[in-house]
Design goal:
The complex is a heterodimer of chains A (253) and B (262). With 253 residues, chain A is an alpha/beta fold. Chain A has helices at 40-47, 70-77, 95-106, 111-124, 140-152, 170-186, 198-204, 222-227, 231-237, 241-252; strands at residues 2-11, 14-24, 29-33, 55-60, 63-64, 80-83, 158-162, 190-195, 207-212, 215-220. In chain B, α5 (90-129) runs antiparallel to α7. Classes of the chains: A alpha/beta (253), B mainly alpha (262).
Chain lengths: 253, 262
C-alpha cells in the first residue's frame, strides 16, 4: 500500500501541491484526476522521488520513501514500474533490449531466461514479434505497450502511469486502459494512474482522488464520482455534452 | 540595432553568482557520476561502446586536419626561416615542437570538443527532455553514473591515442607536402625532427590531453544532463556545451603549461 501524508510542493512562490494526503489501495487502480496544470504530474514525480517536496511523507508499505538514502530508495525503486507520458523508451535500444534492461541491471538471470521473460512480457501486452524493432519504428500505442512491458518485467509491486492515454486515439486508449486494469488485477499491483480522461476514470478506477489547483477536493470511487455534488468535480466530470446528457438522464431517474 | 534582450541574457549568464551556481552543480554532478553503483560488466560494455564512438569515430576528421596542419606548419616555418643564419633543419625542429606541444594536444582537443562535446550534450539532453533519464532514475539506476562515467573514462583513455595518431600524421603531412612543395629536403626535415628531442614534451602533451579528455565529456554532459524544455533548449545546451568546454579547456591549457613547462 502507498500512503501520502500532508505533501506540499512549491516552485518559488507558486504552490503546486497543497497539503495532499491520500491512501492508494493495494492491488487496485488508484486514479489521480484533474484538469491540466493542477499538479498531477508533479505529485507523482514527488511520490517516486524525481522531485523533492517541501514537506510531507510518502509511505511505501509504511516506510517513508522521502527519508531514505540512495541505496534504500534503490530497493523500493526496483519494486516500482513506471509508464511515462511519452513512453520514455531508450532510443538507442531495440524493443527487446528495452524490456530486458531492468533484468540486466538488477538480476543475475542467464540470457536465455531474460529472453523468455521479455517474450512473456511482450505477449502479455499483445505485442509479440516486435523484439527487434527500435522505438522510432513503433506507433504511439505500441510504444506505450512496450513501456508497460518494461515496467512489469521485474514483477513490480507498484505501477505508476503518467497520462497513459495522452496522444492516443480513443480505441487505442481503451486498449491501454484495459491492459492497465488487467495487469493490476492479474499481478495484484498497486497502480497509480494520473489522467484527465473521463473514459479512463469510468473504465478502470477503483479509487479516485480529484485535484483542483493543487488541492485534493474530493475522493471516492467511480460510482460515487457521477453522483457527486462537488462543484469543481462536477465541472470537470460533466465537461462534455455526452456526459451532460448522461447527468440529465441520471437526475431524471 | 542590437537586440537588448541579448545583453540581458548575457548579463544574466555572466553573473558571478550564476557562475558559482554552475560550478557547484557541476561538482555535485561529478560526485554523483563517480558514485558508481552499477554492475562492472555493464560499465565495461558501455566503456567499449564509447571508446568506439568517441575515439574511433573521430579518427577521420582528426587525420585529415592533422595531415594538412602538419603541412601548413612546415611551410609557414620554412617561410619564417628564410635567413642564411638559420639552418634548414630548423623547419623540421619547429614543426615537431609545434605539433607535439600545441597542435596535436590542444587544437585536436578543441576539434574534439566541437565534435564529441556537442554529440554528448545533445544525446544526454534529448534523453532528459524525453524523460528517458527520469525512467532510469525511477528504476533505481544512478543515471549520471550510468550515462556519463563511461564517456569520461573512455575519453581519458582514448584521447591520448588519438593525439599520438595526430602527431604521427602531422609529421607525415609536414614531411610529404613540405618536400613536395620544395621548402625542405627529406634529410633536413628528418634531422630537424630528431634534433634535441625531449621525451618530457611528449609526457606534457599526453598529460594535457588526458585532462582535456576529462573536461570535454564532463562539461558537455553537465549541459545535457540539466537541459530542460524541448528540442530548441537541447540545441542551446549543445552549443553551450561546446563553448564552455572550449573555455575551460583553454584555461586548463594555460594552467598546465605554466605548471609543467614554466
Amino acid at each position: 500500500m502507498i500512503e501520502v501524508r500532508n505533501l506540499n510542493k512549491a516552485f518559488g512562490e507558486k504552490v503546486v501541491i497543497r497539503d495532499f494526503s491520500f491512501r492508494f489501495e493495494e492491488g487496485k487502480a488508484n486514479l489521480i484526476i484533474g484538469e491540466s496544470g493542477t499538479g498531477k504530474s508533479v505529485l507523482v514525480k514527488c511520490m517516486v522521488g524525481l522531485i523533492t517536496p517541501e514537506t510531507g511523507e510518502v509511505l511505501f508499505d509504511g516506510q517513508d520513501f522521502l527519508k531514505m538514502d540512495f541505496d534504500e530508495r534503490k530497493v523500493i525503486r526496483q519494486q516500482i514500474g513506471m509508464l511515462f507520458q511519452g513512453a520514455a523508451l531508450f532510443d538507442s535500444m531495440s524493443v527487446s533490449e528495452n524490456v530486458m534492461f531492468p533484468l540486466t541491471m538488477f538480476t543475475e538471470m542467464p540470457l536465455k531466461e531474460k529472453q523468455e521473460r521479455v517474450r512473456f512480457c511482450l505477449e502479455r501486452v499483445n505485442l509479440p514479434g516486435v523484439e527487434k524493432h527500435y522505438p522510432a519504428e513503433l506507433s504511439g500505442g505500441m510504444k506505450k505497450r512496450v513501456a508497460i512491458a518494461r515496467a512489469i518485467a521485474l514483477n513490480p509491486k507498484y505501477l505508476f502511469c503518467d497520462e497513459p492515454n495522452s496522444g492516443l486515439d480513443p480505441r487505442t486508449s481503451l486498449l491501454i486502459d484495459d491492459l492497465i486494469k488487467e495487469i493490476t488485477e492479474e499481478f495484484n499491483i498497486t497502480t497509480v494512474v494520473i489522467t484527465h480522461d473521463m473514459n479512463s476514470v469510468l473504465e478502470i478506477a477503483d479509487n479516485i482522488a480529484f485535484l483542483h489547483k493543487g488541492e485534493k477536493v474530493w475522493e471516492g470511487n467511480r460510482m460515487e464520482i457521477l453522483r457527486s455534488r462537488n462543484k469543481e468535480l462536477s465541472e470537470f466530470v460533466y465537461a462534455t455534452k455526452i456526459l451532460h446528457a448522461f447527468r440529465d438522464q441520471l437526475e431524471k431517474e | 540595432m542590437p537586440d537588448p534582450r541579448n545583453s540581458v541574457i548575457l548579463a544574466t549568464r555572466m553573473n558571478p553568482i550564476n557562475l558559482i551556481t554552475h560550478i557547484g552543480r557541476y561538482a555535485l554532478l561529478l560526485k554523483q557520476v563517480f558514485r558508481a553503483t552499477e554492475k562492472r560488466s555493464i560499465f565495461w560494455n558501455r566503456f567499449f561502446y564509447e571508446v568506439n564512438s568517441i575515439g574511433i569515430g573521430s579518427l577521420g576528421i582528426v587525420s585529415i586536419i592533422s595531415v594538412f596542419m602538419g603541412a601548413v606548419i612546415t611551410i609557414q616555418s620554412a617561410f619564417g626561416f628564410e635567413s642564411p643564419w638559420i639552418p634548414l633543419y630548423a623547419v623540421g625542429y619547429a614543426t615537431r615542437d609545434s605539433i607535439i606541444l600545441e597542435f596535436s594536444p590542444t587544437i585536436v582537443s578543441l576539434i574534439l570538443a566541437g565534435k564529441v562535446g556537442s554529440s554528448i550534450a545533445s544525446e544526454i539532453g534529448n534523453m532528459r527532455v524525453s524523460e528517458q533519464i527520469d525512467a532510469l532514475d525511477v528504476m533505481g539506476v544512478n543515471s549520471a553514473s550510468f550515462l556519463i562515467l563511461p564517456k569520461i573514462i573512455a575519453s581519458i583513455f582514448i584521447f591520448p591515442f588519438v593525439v599520438i595518431i595526430s602527431m604521427f600524421l602531422g609529421h607525415i603531412g609536414g614531411f610529404v607536402l613540405g618536400v613536395l612543395a620544395g621548402v625542405v629536403t627529406p634529410y633536413e626535415f628528418v634531422y630537424g625532427v630528431q634534433y634535441e628531442f625531449r621525451p618530457y614534451y611528449l609526457f606534457y602533451s599526453l598529460l594535457k590531453t588526458m585532462v582535456f579528455g576529462f573536461i570535454i565529456p564532463s562539461v558537455s554532459a553537465y549541459h545535457g544532463y540539466y537541459a530542460r524544455g524541448g528540442s530548441l533548449e537541447v540545441g542551446q545546451a549543445s552549443t553551450r556545451a561546446v563553448v564552455y568546454s572550449i573555455i575551460v579547456l583553454l584555461l586548463f591549457n594555460f594552467i598546465l603549461t605554466q605548471l609543467l613547462l614554466a
